[in-house]
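This entry is passed on directly below:
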Amino acid sequence: MAKKKQPAGTPAIVALTAAGAEFTVHAYEHDPAHPSYGEEAAQAMGVSPERVFKTLIAEVDGALVVAVVPVSGSLDLKALATAVSGKRAAMADPALAERTTGYVRGGISPLGQRKRLRTVLDVSASAHPTICVSAGRRGLEVELPPTTLTTLTSATLSPIARP
């Protein structure tokens, strides 16, 4: 996988470039009528949904946490709370998630967020040489090794997804 030089871009692409990371950008035409951003991305790129990960913002004991799980499954909130040594987890208010990360819903990337949040990546990511996550806007994904994502976000690997 060749490193792509990007003169400018989303905060996620800027962060990857600044880190000297190897990554590939995939752009596709976003359909606002599609019921699932992640499934749309997987279909548009011709990638297995198990390799395309969605970025969700949850609140665990009052603190925002980033959860990155495959689009083929869903987030197990109880498992997320356990992963960060918390008691209760709930999905964060979408407006709060957007304000805190600097991204819009459906385009929230785990990389280049306005405020760095604790991040948990589902352990299934380690089964793939590369995974895809949002590059910071709808219709734009970045493909990278899961180890790169873990390193750049200081993520914890934990089983937080349900099939």
Notes: The two ends are 29 Å apart (CA to CA).
